[in-house]
Amino acid sequence: MLAKRIIPCLDIREGQTVKGINFVGLRNVGDPVELGAKYAAEGADELVYLDISATEEGRQTFTELVARIAERIDIPFTVGGGIASVADAGRLLDAGADKVTVNSAAVRDPALIDAIASKYGSQFVVAAIDARMTDGVWRVTTHGGKRMTDRELFAWAHEVCQRGAGELLFTSMDHDGTRDGYPCETFARLAELPIPIIASGGAGSVRHIADVLTLGRADAALAASIFHYNEIPIPVLKRELYRLNINVRQ
């Protein structure tokens, strides 16, 4: 049985790591290279870096940041934000990223997933899906949760899998930054897909992470605030998960 992964997420704006609630009220929490190196040293299994501004200028700046990260980080890291073409993905992979995430651009043009997977392989493509519960239905959103689409979460998740995504990163925009726990039933349903599922949005305690890795059947738990504010250091989290008989790398 594969070990469950613990993945700190670093949202990047103007070269700095930021954090807010539901992607608003953002404030700086540290240098992304230094934070990443710290998390790697503490036992993080992977890292995710997301350029949440993702302007053309920001993407160029982000490419330079990815190269700096690659020089310092010795664990796999995934990058995303504003990737709208195979060339965008290639630039970040060439800069040293291990994987790329595609989100809004893939909703607009689903063939983007096929194209990147065809050129670089499914193992390099993480489909990121943000969704909100609306009238009892999970609706996919884009642009950091600001724009609602007519796509339904589970249908879209199935499609990205069929198109060649190697992993799926789902964020509940209703839970992001709230620290109230993950929607485990939703993750358990997503876990029926034949690709790994990364859970994002809502981590506030060891129990929340334990629940999404067991009840939610997620392959990995992604979190930000609890790590950025040192509320649950990664070594402590892993010791507690191990004590709960959850298979994590020590």
TrEMBL record:
Active site: 11, 130
Chief subcellular location: cytoplasm
GO CC annotation terms, alphabetical: cytoplasm
Pathway(s) of this molecule: Amino-acid biosynthesis; L-histidine biosynthesis; L-histidine from 5-phospho-alpha-D-ribose 1-diphosphate: step 5/9
EC number from the UniProt entry: 4.3.2.10
Entry's localization field: Cytoplasm
Keyword terms: Amino-acid biosynthesis, Cytoplasm, Histidine biosynthesis, Lyase
Catalyzed reactions per annotation: 5-[(5-phospho-1-deoxy-D-ribulos-1-ylimino)methylamino]-1-(5-phospho-beta-D-ribosyl)imidazole-4-carboxamide + L-glutamine = D-erythro-1-(imidazol-4-yl)glycerol 3-phosphate + 5-amino-1-(5-phospho-beta-D-ribosyl)imidazole-4-carboxamide + L-glutamate + H(+)
Enzyme class, UniProt record, top EC level: lyase
A GO BP annotation: L-histidine biosynthetic process
Presence of the UniProt keyword Lyase in the record: yes
GO MF, any single term: lyase activity
Protein family according to the UniProt entry: Belongs to the HisA/HisF family.
Subunit structure: Heterodimer of HisH and HisF.
Function: IGPS catalyzes the conversion of PRFAR and glutamine to IGP, AICAR and glutamate. The HisF subunit catalyzes the cyclization activity that produces IGP and AICAR from PRFAR using the ammonia provided by the HisH subunit.
PANTHER family reported in the protein's UniProt record: IMIDAZOLE GLYCEROL PHOSPHATE SYNTHASE HISHF, IMIDAZOLE GLYCEROL PHOSPHATE SYNTHASE SUBUNIT HISF/H IGP SYNTHASE SUBUNIT HISF/H
Descriptive protein name: Imidazole glycerol phosphate synthase subunit HisF
Lineage of the species this protein comes from: Bacteria, Pseudomonadati, Bacteroidota, Bacteroidia, Bacteroidales
